[in-house]
Amino acid sequence: MAQDPSEIFKVLGAETRVAIIEVLKSEKAVGATRIAEILGITPAAVSQHLKILSQANLVKKERKGYWVPYSIDEEALENCRCLLNRVCTCECKTIDRFSQDQLDQATLTALTKYERELEIELRNIQARIAEIKAKEQ
Fold first, then answer.
1. Which domains does the chain possess?
2. 62-78 residue pLDDT tens
């Protein structure tokens, strides 16, 4: 399946698939049987959902003999987050936030740019706070 945003969000439209993503976020690499135990559904149902998530490139799998551990594809989920930020109206989209792993791997140039963006966001927040306080007085 292509990385078409509308297709990815259709895949994420199923509550069980979102729950599987949540399990994979907390458990890292885990098999379908363990996911089924955690969610209280059948392994067959989990396998079908994992197949769809894999086709959408949202999860990765690596066969280890008979066991197939799944993990989230963090880059794909980050792309989803960025897409949502573009259409978000709550103004959270002003900065592409770094995850801890990204911070640990970031270059000086990237961190300096991020620092400038955070400073701008902080000034915008302070200005909005001052505006609200002025209206309340």
1. 5-74 (1.10.10.10), 95-136 (no CATH)
2. 888 888 899 988 888 87
